[in-house]
User: Fold protein-tyrosine-phosphatase from Agaribacter marinus.
Amino acid sequence: MIDLHSHILPGIDDGAKTLQDSIEMAKYSIERGVTHMMCTPHIHFNRFNNTYDSIAHIFFQMLEAVAEQGLALKLAFGAEVRVAPEIISLVKSNTLPYIGEINGKSCVLLELPHSHVPAGADTLIKWLIANEVQPIIPHPERNREILDDYNKVLWLKKLGCLFQLTAGAVVGKFGQDIQLLSGRMLDDSLPYYVASDMHNLDKRANDMSDAYDYVESEYGTSHAESLFITNPKTITARVDWQ
Assistant:
């Protein structure tokens, strides 16, 4: 499986704290069928002020450690970028970390706050699309405003967004309401792929294998392969996995 959302890089956000944590998370993911992992630390202005260069620096340390351990895991990096006006300057300066490409557009994980869909998000989304950037909304199922009003996710789809469900949400790790919303989105074929959003080995571990089994049992093998393998492979067709 190809996991396009993880917080496995050490000491850079609220994910792995140490390089040893990162290695243990990598081993755990491999054991659960992950062969490729996109490292996507937060860029959350005034909280996690990561940049393309600072992420790259930690990424290459991680890459070296994975090679030393002989782990069968291919890595690349992007970022999970919180909605903010500063994103525009990153696009213009070509310093926004993308996770891949689809239909000629560079793909960015565009994170909404968990509490709401902020005013002006539509303006930013329209600008990104007009400038050849494809917004992918991670974990929409955990956004409180979307939980309260399903029309919000349909509105985001109409604006041109793609969606990534979290594996743990699919199998109920975030509670029944979030699992039900995940199921409704799956019923409506809204997610483009499922990813782990792995942060640690405790409450935010890698649930990709359990989620794959669930989707396969409920929606069939073809649909599971699309969400966990084929569609992520499409996005990363030109990514230099290392």
About this structure: The chain has one domain: 2-235. The longest helix spans residues 52-69. The first strand starts at residue 2 and ends at 3.
